[in-house]
Design a protein that fits this description.
The chain has 400 residues and is an alpha+beta fold. It folds into 2 domains: 198 residues, GAF domain (Beta-Lactamase, 2-Layer Sandwich), CATH 3.30.450.40; 154 residues, Reverse transcriptase/Diguanylate cyclase domain (Alpha-Beta Plaits, 2-Layer Sandwich). Helices cover 47% and strands 20% of the residues. It is built from 12 helices and 13 strands. The strands form 3 sheets. Strands 3-2-1-6-5-4 form a 6-stranded antiparallel sheet. Strands 8-9-7-12-13 form a 5-stranded mixed sheet, sandwiched between helices. A hairpin with a 5-residue loop joins strand 10 and strand 11. Helix 3 packs antiparallel against helix 7 and helix 9 packs across helix 10. The chain is rod-shaped.
């Protein structure tokens, strides 16, 4: 019953006073004017509500008032099936949305297939009315109007109105009036379904476009990310590394003491050519990936780990004290020296690196200055016997 209350609380546009029921309509034009007023009053309702049951209820209520019915109900066909389901009720009838009948079945189902509307009185009603409907009414009907809802030769459903047995029966004028309105409802039902099907299609198309747009954005971001990365090691590439370094140097200039210092660690895999010459380029690639993995594991989110070129790697540490950078460089060297690359079941490879460390702004005000300082330290580390870390204070790098 709660659902019924919700529907009945919807405000319905008032029907002009002159359309109230008159038992005997003597002039045909008066009946036509009455219908026109009702049609004008309800013509806008289907555009205001998405639920077809609400649309039907709000449109049919004035019709029921007009013909002085005590109750009524509407069955509509479910899509392409042959099932009719109760969509809405009005007046003195218990609300139920669980009643379904088969099209052509005795009772409502059969009357829905009728080519003409039906008006029944007295005992004739009990010969054809459904027991389910009688149960909903809980009182004795004395008169019934049954109007199939048809549009473009398509059966859409049925409207039935009933009166108490102690009231005057429906008239042929009321039957005619209800029939015209039912034909109008048929057009509205078709338009309503088409409108909301189209609305759903537009909604789905909008969702599909948004999904496609999100996918394109993701693919663009993925492609952009790939363009910044080295294909083999998945570390950042040389180009991105230099851009990152220049941005950090500019940032340090703007922020001054608040930024502090940054550290650049530049390393070279010792005797890398020997791996390629002795074991082949496939093992050489495995060595590069192994070193890259250790670099990645020893970097923070704000750092930039990059494949600088060939067997050279770089790790830029923004806002890092020089001593802290030295510690990280030594940890990297030891991690690689202590690790063993299992190239195959028969081959285990030992790797070492030589490392040069510079810092900014001490070693220069440009990216090239910082790299040159680290490169000088790296060269010194190789000259000194490899597998060691040399920092800029040890290789006499000068402030630029």
């Amino acid at each position: 019953m709660e659902e019924n209350k919700i529907i009945q609380n919807v405000e319905v546009e008032a029907i002009p006073a002159q359309t109230s029921y008159i038992p005997q309509v003597k002039r045909p034009e008066e009946s036509i004017n009455r219908m026109l007023l009702l049609l004008e009053s309800i013509s806008r309702v289907d555009k205001l509500y998405t639920d077809l049951a609400e649309v039907l209820y709000i449109m049919i209520c004035p019709i029921i008032q007009e013909i002085q019915a005590d109750a009524g109900y509407v069955f509509l066909k479910e899509g392409e099936t042959d099932i009719l389901s109760l969509k809405t009720t009005f007046g003195e009838i218990n609300l139920s949305r669980n009643i379904k009948v088969k099209l052509g079945e005795e009772g409502v189902g059969k009357r829905a297939l009728a080519s003409e509307p039906t008006i029944l009185h007295g005992s004739d009603i009990y010969k054809v009315i459904d027991k389910k409907i009688l149960k909903l009414l809980e009182w004795n009907p004395g008169s019934l109007i049954s109007i199939p809802i048809v549009s473009e030769n398509q059966i859409l459903g049925i409207i039935e109105s009933v009166k108490h047995d102690d009231k005057s029966p429906f008239t042929t004028e009321q039957l005619h009036f209800t029939r015209i309105m039912a034909n109008y409802f048929g057009s509205i039902i078709i338009e309503h379904e088409l409108f909301y099907k189209m609305k759903e299609k537009v909604k789905q198309a909008t969702k599909d476009l948004r999904d496609a747009n999100s996918k394109l954005k993701f693919m663009f971001q993925e492609a952009k990310e790939r363009s910044l990365r080295d294909g083999l090691t998945h570390l950042y590439n040389h180009s991105y590394f230099f851009d990152f370094l220049e941005r950090e140097i500019e940032k340090s200039k703007r922020q001054g003491e608040k930024y502090g210092t940054g550290v650049l660690i530049l390393c070279d895999i010792d005797h890398f050519k020997k791996f390629n010459d002795t074991y082949g380029h496939q093992v050489g690639d495995m060595v590069l990936m192994h070193v890259a993995k250790i670099f990645q594991e020893n970097s923070r989110k704000i750092d930039c780990a990059a494949r600088y070129g060939g067997e050279e790697f770089a790790l830029l540490l923004p806002q890092t004290p020089f001593k802290g950078g030295q510690t990280i460089a030594e940890r990297l060297r030891q991690s690689i020296e202590n690790s063993i690359l299992k190239a195959s079941d028969e081959l285990s490879v030992k790797i070492t690196i030589s490392v040069g460390v510079s810092c900014y702004p001490t070693c220069g005000s440009k990216g090239s200055d910082i790299v040159e300082a680290a490169d000088q330290c790296l060269y010194k580390a190789k000259e000194s016997g490899r597998n060691r870390v040399i920092v800029c204070s040890e290789c006499n790098c000068q402030e630029k």
